[in-house]
From TrEMBL:
<protein>
    <submittedName>
        <fullName>Protease inhibitor-like protein</fullName>
    </submittedName>
</protein>
<dbReference type="GO" id="GO:0005576">
    <property type="term" value="C:extracellular region"/>
</dbReference>
<feature type="domain" description="Kazal-like">
    <location>
        <begin position="22"/>
        <end position="75"/>
    </location>
</feature>
<keyword id="KW-0964">Secreted</keyword>
<dbReference type="InterPro" id="IPR039932">
    <property type="entry name" value="Spink4-like"/>
</dbReference>
<dbReference type="InterPro" id="IPR002350">
    <property type="entry name" value="Kazal_dom"/>
</dbReference>
<feature type="region of interest" description="Disordered">
    <location>
        <begin position="1"/>
        <end position="27"/>
    </location>
</feature>
<dbReference type="GO" id="GO:0004867">
    <property type="term" value="F:serine-type endopeptidase inhibitor activity"/>
</dbReference>
<dbReference type="Pfam" id="PF07648">
    <property type="entry name" value="Kazal_2"/>
</dbReference>
<dbReference type="InterPro" id="IPR036058">
    <property type="entry name" value="Kazal_dom_sf"/>
</dbReference>
<keyword id="KW-1015">Disulfide bond</keyword>
<feature type="compositionally biased region" description="Low complexity">
    <location>
        <begin position="13"/>
        <end position="24"/>
    </location>
</feature>
Amino acid sequence: SVRNKRQADNILNSSNNNGTTTSSLDECKRSCPVTPEYNPVCGTNNETFSNPGRLICAQACGENVKLARRAPCPPAQNK
């Protein structure tokens, strides 16, 4: 399912730190206690968050983002 794939991707992304430095914002967002629920929302930064808790987490970590809509963000338009 999509939810299981996202969970697997999150696990891979969080444990695959090939010597690259991650920002404190990324570290903060990874440490948030959020549910695995897939209920996508779009932030004002045009980033799709997997659920509202992840958007709230980003805000708590200092990211300047608000809820744009309760659905995935539309694909970026390449012009």
